[in-house]
Design goal:
The complex is a heterodimer of chains A (434) and B (315).
Chain A: H1 3-21, H2 25-48, H3 59-77, H4 88-107, H5 112-132, H6 134-137, E1 143-144, H7 161-183, H8 186-196, H9 198-203, H10 208-234, E2 236-237, H11 244-257, H12 264-282, H13 286-300, H14 304-317, H15 321-354, E3 361-363, E4 366-368, H16 373-414, H17 420-433
Antiparallel strand pairs in A: 1-2, 3-4
Chain B: H1 2-32, H2 39-56, H3 59-86, H4 90-112, E1 128-132, E2 135-138, H5 139-161, H6 163-173, H7 175-180, H8 185-208, H9 217-232, H10 237-256, H11 261-267, H12 279-282, H13 293-304
Antiparallel strand pairs in B: 1-2
Helix pairs in contact in B: 1-5, 1-8, 1-9, 1-10, 2-3, 2-4, 2-8, 2-9, 3-4, 3-8, 5-6, 5-8, 9-10, 9-13
The chains are: A mainly alpha (434), B mainly alpha (315).
């Protein structure tokens, strides 16, 4: 068994086993949401990361795909049409592809800011027409459906959520493989070239506009799969599905995961969906935390989580990671103190803003009155301590990082010439970092 | 005729308000190439600051203090946020302002609550300026127009007639040369960003009490300001002015027309009923399309002329 097949079989085994380990309904619905988000974010990265097109309206494609899928599902339910529910995401894909062709023809004539602005304009127009055309979009209430239609096929009715999980997992795996394969095709490579320098691509005889168009249409199709799956999973599609919030969310997920690596958006989708569900059940201020996390990422790790992973790869391979990790742990503990201070400040302010005057609040099991001095004193102390110690930790991290990269570089240079090619990649990254 | 005159006045005052917002955005864009997604958030901050200050010491001091305070916040955002992100490229800058808009909205929600605040028009301006036909024209609308025009003239004079304006204009096109001549270009950028935010805040101060001051006001205004700037031509102040007035008029006039395509076809002698194909599309009235119209115009403009109305460059 080669290494690749081993990785793949482990991955598939994990995907199959997950709902058996986390069998509660909440866990399964969370994983379902994650699967849909993964397909959506990967499809978005096809245009953002791979083709260099910043779009503010990707939810248009997933949302319209979802609407078409749900209408078809309702037709099936009414007995006017025969179509297996398992293949319904294909309907979403085709529907989204149609709109991808329609809008893409207009938007992909330009790149850069102009593309971003046109995509924003189209997104706003579609979102506004969702409320103007109640026949198709279902107005405020949206369109609801029942996914358990048609004859049961080997006992698969899609009634229990676990069956939907396997449906989503299967489609996510298929789409992931297809999208990865696409990055290896000439079209995928050309898309990267168009992102880096459209003029040169034109010079060697390809039409960048056509490359952008094809990538957008394909990306819309995959977004449509995500839309079709969400129609099945939630059994409702509302105007929110085409709205700007959804478009913004996929942008955040993709960026936080990292646009530079294929697996980046997968991480981003998992992390963000998890944060959204867990934070929103913990605190009302989750959007604020969300925004703050995003700002911190943009400021300090603009390549996303995946770029951090890639950055540490050479150290991992050279077994030097152990020299940096202690300083990271120290910085992490300082960051946690600061975070506790920020969270305390936000929670107390939120409590004061939202609740009626008087009464005590509970935070982490502690009951106190936010109108007295001590809680504020604790918050101020945490903030000050965290802020000061984090500055100190930052210097320690930098020192450890510098020492480890020096060591890495020394090792790379002392390796025999014949072994150099094997270490070429590490050397390249190590020298780039210094 | 009455409808026409009233809509014209309202359209112009709304257009001037739009210009107060879009002028700052355009200045920031032409200087730094950053499309500031959080611009409307600074407009909202202006309104909330003015509300708070006018409760403490009155409206007139707020008119001065609120824009200055917001301008200072804007300068800080540029100094400690945007400048750090700048080296990662334009997308990172754009995303930074995108995230900032989220955070500002939530912070406003925490401090002042979800419901609209009671930010009132000052009593000395709360009277009817004149009456056209049977519609009263409130003095405060006149005041908004006055502030906008004064601001327009002031910005024009500062940019064209002063030394600072000269340096700003030079930094716009030849930042390296200006730096070589001994000017601190990053500081000029910071001033521009702060100044643009202050202009947005001024718009918020005068518009917050004329309309509604609530946490959703930034999102409501953000889209249309973007449209104005893109439509008028990125980086062109004159274009932003023309586009503001044009879009202001388009919005106010389209709200007043209750005509749909179905009516139009009906007038041509063809009957359109609920059974006709595409009836859902045909029965939409022009008034209903009012929120979409600006975006439609922007998309059409970008397709036909990506530079925008009076723009000189694409991005």
């Amino acid at each position: 068994m080669t290494r690749k097949t081993l990785y793949w079989s482990v991955l598939i085994a994990i995907i199959v086993a997950l709902p058996l380990v986390f069998a509660s309904n909440t866990a399964i619905s969370l994983m379902n949401a994650m699967g849909i988000a993964i397909i959506f974010a990967l499809s978005y990265n096809m245009i953002l990361g791979q083709t260099g097109l910043l779009s503010f309206g990707h939810a248009v494609y997933s949302g319209l795909g979802a609407y078409i899928a749900i209408h078809v599902l309702n037709l099936v339910g009414a007995g006017k049409l025969w179509f297996p529910v398992t293949l319904l995401p294909l309907v979403g894909a085709l529907g989204a592809m149609f709109f991808g062709v329609l809008f893409g023809y207009v938007t992909t004539r330009r790149a850069g800011t102009t593309f971003a602005m046109i995509s924003l304009g189209i997104a706003e127009m579609v979102a506004a027409s969702a409320l103007m055309l109640p026949g198709f979009f279902g107005g405020e209430a949206g369109i609801s459906t029942n996914r358990t239609v048609g004859k049961a096929f080997f006992g698969i009715t899609y009634g229990p959520p676990i069956q939907v999980y396997y449906l989503i997992a299967g489609w996510a795996l298929l789409c992931g493989v297809l999208m990865y394969a696409l990055t290896r095709t000439p079209l995928g490579r050309l898309a990267n070239a168009v992102r880096d320098n459209a003029e040169r691509v034109e010079f060697i005889g390809y039409d960048p506009q056509r490359v952008r168009f094809l990538m957008l249409v394909l990306s819309a199709a995959f977004a449509g799969v995500a839309g079709g799956l969400s129609a099945i999973n939630y059994e409702i599609v509302t105007s929110e599905n085409v709205g700007p919030v959804r478009s913004g969310a996929v942008l955040l997920a993709t960026f936080i995961g990292g646009v530079g690596e294929f697996f980046g958006p997968i991480i981003g989708a998992i992390v963000l969906t998890f944060l959204e569900v867990s934070l929103s059940s913990f605190t009302k201020a989750w959007i604020l935390y969300f925004g703050l996390i995003f700002l911190t990422m943009v400021l300090y790790a603009p390549g996303g989580i995946s770029s951090l992973a890639v950055l540490h790869r050479p150290f991992w391979k050279a077994r030097l990671l152990g020299r940096i990790v202690p300083s990271y742990l120290f910085a992490l503990s300082c960051a946690l103190v600061l975070l506790a201070g920020i969270a305390g400040l936000v929670e107390i302010s939120y409590f004061l803003a939202e609740s009626s005057p008087g009464g005590a609040m509970t935070l982490l099991g502690l009951k106190f009155d936010p109108r007295t001095v001590p809680p504020w004193l604790v918050v101020a102390l945490l903030l000050g301590l965290g802020g000061v110690s984090l500055r100190w930790a930052k210097r320690r991290v930098a020192a450890a990082w510098h020492a480890a990269s020096q060591e890495l570089l020394r090792r790379v240079r002392s390796v025999e010439p014949t072994d150099r090619s094997a270490l070429g990649r590490e050397k390249f990254t190590a020298e780039q970092m210094l | 005729m009455e409808f026409f005159a009233v809509s014209l006045l309202q359209g112009i005052s709304y257009g001037l308000l739009l210009f107060m917002l879009s002028s700052g955005l355009t200045l920031i864009f032409s200087m730094m190439g950053v499309l500031n997604f959080a611009h409307a958030s600074f407009y909202m901050l202006g309104a909330y600051f003015a509300y708070q200050i006018s409760r403490w010491i009155g409206f007139w001091p707020a008119l001065i203090i609120a824009p200055l305070a917001v301008g200072a916040i804007g300068a800080a955002v540029e100094r400690y946020g945007l400048r750090t992100v700048h080296k990662y490229g334009h997308v990172a800058e754009l995303l930074f302002t995108f995230g900032l808009a989220f955070v500002i909205e939530e912070v406003v929600r925490i401090i002042w609550g979800r419901a609209p605040v009671d930010y009132k028009i000052p009593p000395e301006l709360d009277f009817t300026l004149f009456t056209i036909y049977s519609t009263n024209f409130p003095a405060y609308r006149g005041f908004i127009m006055l502030v906008a025009v004064v601001m327009l003239v002031a910005v024009f004079l500062v940019l064209k007639k002063t030394r600072i304006g000269l340096i700003i204009q030079a930094s716009l096109t030849h930042p390296e040369m200006v730096e070589a001549l001994g000017h601190n270009v990053p500081r000029v950028f910071m001033l521009i960003f702060g100044g643009g935010c202050a202009l947005a805040a001024l718009a918020g101060v005068v518009a917050g009490n004329a309309f509604v001051t609530d946490p959703a006001m930034a999102a409501a205004m953000g889209g249309i300001v973007f449209v104005v700037v893109v439509f008028g031509g990125l980086g062109s102040l004159a274009g932003a002015f023309v586009a503001s007035l044009f879009l202001g008029l388009v919005q106010t006039f389209s709200v007043g027309f209750d005509i749909s395509l179905a009516d139009l076809i009906g007038r041509l002698g063809l009957a359109v009923g609920s059974g006709s194909p595409l009836y859902g599309v045909l029965k939409i009235t022009l008034a209903q399309t009012a929120p979409v119209l600006p975006f439609l115009l922007m998309v059409v403009m970008l397709i036909v002329r990506p530079k925008g109305l009076l723009g000189t460059r694409e991005s």
